[in-house]
Amino acid sequence: KYFEKLMPEFIRRNKKKRELLENGLDEADIFEQMKEERPIFIFAADIGEFFKMVYKPEAGVGNMSGFLENILERGSLHHIYFMGCLKVEDESLLMSYKGYNLFVSYKKGIHLGGNLAGQKIFNFQNIAYAQQTKTMKKGMGYVPKDEEDSIGMEVVVPVAKKKV
After folding, report:
1. Which letter does DSSP use for residue 125 in this model?
2. pLDDT score, position 146
3. If residue 79 lies in a helix (H) or strand (E), which one and from where to where?
4. How many Å apart are CA 25 and CA 33, to the nearest integer?
């Protein structure tokens, strides 16, 4: 239902982006123009479950995998952002979904928990292998710097602790 409601908005933004491209604007200028749009953030608590739901919808639920693939493939600069948590152990199962491969192809995110060697999305080649296999404290992570995926920064995500 949400994707059905999002579709006209994506089409409108896509038309605007296409017009800006036809007028000769570069990506930086298009980004500035598209910032006028209200940002849309889509959070998936479990990327694995999200993609399984999209590609294998329940009875009576329309298939929106093509729309999702379109947003992820052509949706850059639309001011629509997908965010989610991925369990490293789900990665190999999800690789058969085109949408998942498009999602991770952006190579944007934070790797939490350490054991950088155990994931395949980011390549932290500037970190010694001994360091890559270490776990990290809860809430600690690495953000890749750029296309070379060298380490950009270490981040700390505040973790709320439950008092007993």
Report:
1. T
2. 67
3. none
4. 10
Q: Could you give the maximum distance between any two Cα atoms of the chain, in Å?
A: 60
Mutual orientation of helices 2-22 and 27-34 as an angle, nearest 10°? 130
SS3 155: strand
Q: Sign of torsion, CA 68 116 150 153?
A: positive
- pLDDT tens digit string along 127-140? 788 888 888 888 88
The predicted-structure confidence for 36-83, as pLDDT tens digits, reads as follows 999 999 999 999 999 999 999 888 888 889 999 999 988 889 999 999
Binned at pLDDT 50, 70 and 90, residue 150 comes out as low
Nearby residues of 81 by Cβ (< 8 Å), 6 or more positions away: 39, 40, 41, 42
DSSP one-letter code for 161: P
Q: Which residues contact 38 (CB under 8 A, 6 or more apart)?
A: 79
Burial per residue of 14-40, b for 16 or more beta-carbon CB atoms within 10 angstroms, e otherwise: bebbeebeeeeeeeeebeebbeeeeee
Q: In this structure, how many other beta carbons lie within 10 angstroms of the beta carbon of residue 47?
A: 20
CA distance 44 to 26: 31
| Average confidence (pLDDT) over 122-127 | 79
